[in-house]
């Protein structure tokens, strides 16, 4: 918690400020950032309560009367006032018109900080804008319709609220709907602007999805095995000849056909010698135990020669 925030909390307790006054003090603090739209919306809703309205406006006028180094009090008070005029109770605009001189005097606000920067110019410009808005009733009515519709849309999106009339303590919800062709045009422009904003948001989301998809593809490419490794893995896992992978390791060609053993022919003289043609030679006789037929054949051959 910052020192300024702690100091404000102490003052809130010491002066026994109400909830509405505390919110106004927070929205118009000296912190170097503007009041949040959610906080200003809460304050605008409280202006429909008679007691809270009096407390809010009293604190706003008190902030407007500040000066010097507290120029942010003044500038933020006018920012909050403009928001309340457009979205708060109609009594806010009425009271601001009755005290418009207090705003007009701020067009001459002067303050130069230690760095030589003219911070009073921010207050002066804001005062001119407020005075112009308060003097132009037609423009104020149009600005109010536009702002109320925007606030209603935001409320429906965030909390499902149907209408801002529930905060007004009996205000007619139909006041937020168009009463003339001019109001319809304003609401149409608002709808177009919101539609454009939604389209831009969808485009940003789509670009984010495309970026995530591209990153996933790049990651997949980095994790994918090289083509040479993939080919070797496929060759080691699949044998085109249908044999198991273990049997084809180191083989560069097709597997030879299986050899079926042929039982050797056997006879009374023992197994016959192997013949590649499968036919026993008529002149071959065993040498160890010659057959009688072989002896006769050999004898005739000798006589013939």
Automatic annotation (TrEMBL):
Locations listed in the record: Cytoplasm
Low complexity bias spans: 158-170, 244-253
SUPFAM superfamilies: ENTH/VHS domain
Region (Disordered): 148-182, 244-271
Keywords noted in UniProt: Cytoplasm, Lipid-binding, Phosphoprotein, Repeat
Superkingdom classification of source: Eukaryota
Cross-referenced SMART domains: ENTH (SM00273), UIM (SM00726)
BP GO annotations: endocytosis
Pfam families per the UniProt record, alphabetical: ENTH
Predominant location: cytoplasm
Keyword S-adenosyl-L-methionine: no
One GO CC annotation: plasma membrane
Any one GO molecular-function label of the UniProt entry: clathrin binding
Keyword Lipid metabolism: no
InterPro entries: ENTH, ENTH_VHS, UIM_dom
Domain annotation ENTH: ranges: 12-144
Family: Belongs to the epsin family.
Name of the molecule in the record: ENTH domain-containing protein
Species whose genome carries this gene: Anabas testudineus
